[in-house]
Amino acid sequence: MLRPGREIIGLHRDGLHGFMGWTRPILTDSGGFQVFSLAALRRIDEDGVSFVSPVDGASVRMRPEDAMDVQRALSSDIAMAFDDCTAYPATAPQARESMQRSMRWAMRSYDHYHRDEPPPGHLFGIVQGGMFEELRLESIEALSQREFAGYAIGGLAVGEPEEERLRVLDFVAPRLPVQRPRYLMGVGYPHDIVAAVARGVDMFDCVMPTRHARNGHLFTSGGIINIRNAAHQRDTGPIDPACSCSTCSRYSRAYLRHLDRCNEILGVRLATLHNLHFYLELMRQIRAAIAAGRFAQIAADIIARPRRAGTPVA
User: Fold this and answer.
1) Active site (annotated) includes residue 301
2) Which of 42, 108, 117, 213 is a Cys-bridge partner for 272, taking CB atoms 3.0 to 4.6 Å apart?
């Protein structure tokens, strides 16, 4: 998801995109957050990470250079440096150790990714440092030693309170290069997105549209509904009357609830299509509002909506 304001990236569409049957731009993560999520199965050292595969128990070794090789092979339009995502909560010494390791890995990532010219895409550095402003500043200064195409803000949306996340964003975003895209990783709810855009963030990624769909939580212009609620059992209306997605155009809430209760995969697919459409439309509205000078108005409207699944919707 990308808002206007950064025009430096000419997206690359060659390479192995066709292997995946996808001819449009792709962004890949380095695996740092996935390693973070496997904390009980991993061991971190200076050279990289060793972990046990949760799929088949196989031993896996991942170094910054390995993460770059995978993303180069995919010809990712935007690739990410390999990082050590700082957990929350973390003490200042823990956050410093994690951040400094991430910066050393970022230098290795950059040098390996750019080992020949031209590189297949554009490499972003990831700002770390936990909730500590002085560590975030140190991270930004370290990344400035290389010409990264953009800057991701990592180590947020990992369990910290919203006010802590916004405090870190208020500090970090204005200190990033104005000519480079700013990418907030792992966020989030619509109100989280508009709050970050207001602070200068351009790009986002999150599993929320698909994960919520799998659990029956659907985003609408009136807030989030839980399709599993009995109130939808005989509701022949669409998920959202204001939505033009293929799901809302053809199927009712009652039918989607029926599919969910039957554990039918079609229900998950239809719900996913709807949620993805909702987020794409959200970003389209944000881009249009910025261009028209009406961002504050649309942000206030989105922030006023109910926030969590299960919240009653008028």
Assistant:
1) no
2) 213
Instruction: Kindly report, residue by residue over 128-184, the tens digit of the pLDDT.
Output: 999 999 999 999 999 999 999 999 999 999 999 999 999 999 999 999 999 999 999
Each residue of 238-260: pLDDT tens digit?
999 999 999 999 999 999 999 99
Any idea what the CATH number is for the domain that residue 55 is in? 3.20.20.105
7 found inside a domain? no
Task: Look at residue 308 and tell me if it is in a domain.
Answer: no
Say which of 66, 205, 235, 301 is annotated catalytic. Answer: 205
Consecutive H or E run containing 78? strand 78-80
Spatial separation of the C-alpha atoms in residues 314 and 299, rounded to whole Å: 20
CB 303, CB 197: distance < 8 Å? no
What is the value of pTM for the model shown?
Answer: 0.90
Q: Which domain holds residue 297?
A: 211-303
The residue out of 206, 237, 266 marking a domain boundary is 206
- Two tokens at 286? 């944000």
Confirm if 68 and 41 have CB atoms less than 8 A apart: no
Number of domains in the chain: 2
Judge whether 202 counts as a catalytic residue.
no
Q: Residue written as tokens 């595969």? A: 53
Task: Single out the catalytic residue among 29, 77, 83, 84.
Answer: 29
Rg (CA), the chain: 21
